[in-house]
Amino acid sequence: xxxxxxxxxxxxxHRSFAGRLAxxxxxxxxxxxxxxxxxxxxxxxxxxxxxDAPKAAADLVSRAWPPRWSYMDRLWGPLWDTxxxxxxxxxxxxxxxxxxxxxxxxxxxxxxxFLRPLALFCIVASRSINSLIxxxxxxxxxxxxxxxxILAIGFRSVGFIGKxxxxxIEETDAQQIEAITATGATKAQILSYGIVxxxxxxxxxxxxxxxxxxxxxxxxxxxxxxGGIGAQLNASLNxxxxxxxxxxxxxxLATVVVSEWVSARVRHAII
Length: 271
What we know:
Pfam families: BPD_transp_1 (PF00528). The protein is an all-alpha fold. It is built from eleven helices and no strands.
């Protein structure tokens, strides 16, 4: 029997007995961790309902189909509100995020010790709080309505736009900035002629992409009183009007598909 050259030997030939033992122990530990987590998650699960789930789902589908098409006349207004919430919220997020991105980028911030950490904190805080949580807080302060929805979408968008934009600013070509600086340009001129032209296509793409995301998020803000088509969905769910719920879900799906198509076409045209 010929020996296998070291370079062609299988990987397991290079492991010692202790290494293989540690590998097996690691896999065993992962299996034990999975079993423990599964038992913890299903400790209070009532399996009688799980077994009955297919029958319950079939019953729900039979009551929800066909959709109540006559209810569509009452959805045009809330649908328009949803689009407005997403659009105005995106614009608000852009207005707040652009200055924060300039302050957060290492090559544009005027103060790395104070202003940059403060801007990064605002961006992280915005990204850490879901739009539904923003909506709950704002509804409790401002009352129900689309204003709370617009502000919730705007505050949530700040973190997304600000983070991607300040990273794009930091990745700009330093040679172009140095060439403009060598002409004696001011900081404002360096920003306008050296940085903005480089990040503008990225900025457009980020903004349109965020608007597409906000269309989806604004569709459910009405569940907590922030206006839009989600309010109609919540009202229909409360009275168990399942055909209306089906129609609303189809409208939301169609809106998201159209917004995705518009977003892709705009980003392709810009970038």
